Amino acid sequence: MKKIVVLTGAGISAESGLKTFRDSDGLWEGYDINEVATPEAWQRNPALVQDFYNQRRKSVLEAEPNAAHYALAKLEEKYDVTIITQNIDNLHERAGSTDVLHLHGIITKSQSSINPNLTYDIEGWELRMDEVCLLGSPLRPHIVWFGESVPMIEPAARICTEAEIFILVGSSLAVYPAAGLINYVPKPTPKYIVDPVIPDVKLQNLIRITEKASMGVVALVNELMNDAAGNE
């Protein structure tokens, strides 16, 4: 099976009704990111941060995967597929994708506030302030906040070097270090970008699909499935 690596950003989740991480005005759901998405914010007002992510988690659990999520899951019938996502929702998994790497964490898990390697599944949508890890430290969302390192970036880079087909969906390539992953993809590898606004990148073997994810990804997956069937 050919190896497909998919990098997804906020655009694919937006079509499921989840707002993109950061609007053009720098706000996320009306909040300054410095108030809800930094370690300093947690130190200043952990209750505010906890409530903010509880509401985001509730929105994620109420949302449904869209056609693009389901199409990417279908690729596994004919390809070895790894999805690297910048998104903190679990819509890829709920659509059926089995190999998903979350660069920025996942909102349905919590972590110890002193040891990020201690993680726990969250039952339902609410994480309470009195819930603690086995070390007795309060649990916080399992999210990589601004100013924190991205521990999954090195595994993601290694996966990108193995790509025989690379697909970028719904990302403006504005957030680093995630945006740099495309540079690890081998030059001869076909690279597809699906987005209404294609990022300004100069890459070999680049195919631009100027569509929303639900349209462009479905069409691309149908094409790739037909190619695989023709090679059997």
What are the defining features of this structure?
elongated, alpha/beta, six-stranded parallel beta sheet, SIR2/SIRT2 'Small Domain', single chain, three-stranded antiparallel beta sheet, 8 helices, 232 residues, Rossmann fold
Task: Report on this structure.
The chain has 232 residues and is of the alpha/beta class. It has 2 domains: 1-18 and 65-104 and 150-232, Rossmann fold (3-Layer(aba) Sandwich), CATH 3.40.50; 19-62 and 105-143, SIR2/SIRT2 'Small Domain' (2-Layer Sandwich). The chain has helices spanning 10-14, 33-36, 39-44, 46-62, 67-74, 91-95, 153-161, 213-230, and strands at 3-8, 27-28, 31-32, 80-85, 100-102, 105-112, 119-121, 139-143, 165-169, 191-194, 206-209. Strands 5-4-1-9-10-11 form a 6-stranded parallel β-sheet. A 3-stranded antiparallel β-sheet has the order 7-6-8. Helix 6 (91-95) links the parallel strand 4 and strand 5. The longest helix is centred in the C-terminal third of the chain and has 18 residues, at 213-230. 38% of the residues are buried. The model has no long low-confidence stretch (mean pLDDT 92).
